[in-house]
Design a protein that fits this description.
Elements: E1 2-4, E2 7-10, H1 16-31, H2 41-51, E3 62-70, H3 71-77, E4 84-87, E5 105-107, H4 117-138, H5 143-146, E6 155-163, H6 164-174, H7 181-197, H8 199-202
Parallel strand pairs: 1-5
Antiparallel strand pairs: 2-3, 3-6, 4-6
Helix pairs in contact: 1-2
């Protein structure tokens, strides 16, 4: 059994200048103000239209991120409907095979210290589930049958593509103090990275 921390990977290299130019070009079409483009004008223009609530313009660019998280977090993520998803399938992945090191991988819960009674109970439960999962598989069950006992804490990988407007919506909901602590655990670091790389798009989002 393996226990890991959640994480994320931005799947493609972000080119801030290209993204800014694409959005500015599209947005200025609305006002036929293409002649006002200049050095640094894209950032100012985009920040201005977002402040005015004209966020449809930033839908012209997208971002793809791979989340390594527990299945509970992935279930919350896919509730964002303007997006594309590709997720590790417990129906087809045979975790008793060599490809997975014949072990289950779980995401460490962030709300319990490792020396707490609650964490010990959680760890013992995951160990028991792994043992019983392998009993199923060794007894001839298929992955789609054995997965019925797998918990929310099971690690999954989900590739998420959203346009930039939907990412703003995602961060406003999932970084908020009312959000589940485990989704905040990956949403907040991702937002902070994007604030550095695309400040005109994400710099105004607070949590």
């Amino acid at each position: 059994m393996k226990v890991i921390e959640p994480s994320y990977i931005i799947e493609e290299e972000i080119d801030p200048q290209k993204i800014m130019r694409t959005i500015e070009k599209a947005g200025r079409t609305c006002y036929k103000s293409e002649g006002n483009k200049s050095e640094g004008s894209a950032e100012r223009f985009i920040a201005s239209i977002i402040k005015r609530g004209h966020e449809s313009v930033i839908e012209h660019e997208k971002l793809t991120v791979r989340f390594i998280c527990d299945r509970g977090v992935s279930h919350e993520t896919v509730r964002h409907r303007i997006a594309s998803y590709s997720q590790e399938s417990t129906r087809y992945c045979n975790y008793s095979g060599d490809k997975f090191g014949r072990e289950l991988t779980f995401i460490k819960p962030c709300f319990w210290d490792e020396d707490s009674p609650e964490y010990r109970v959680w760890l013992e439960t995951m160990e028991y589930i792994e043992e019983k999962y392998f009993e199923f598989m060794d007894g001839g069950a298929t992955p789609e049958q054995a997965r019925s006992i797998l918990p929310n804490s099971l690690k999954t990988e989900i590739v998420v593509t959203m346009n930039l407007r939907e990412w703003r919506h995602f961060f406003r909901l999932r970084c908020d103090k009312a959000a589940h602590p485990q989704i905040r655990e990956i949403a907040i670091p991702l937002l902070e990275e994007l604030k550095e790389k695309l400040p005109a798009v994400f710099g105004d989002i607070v949590y």
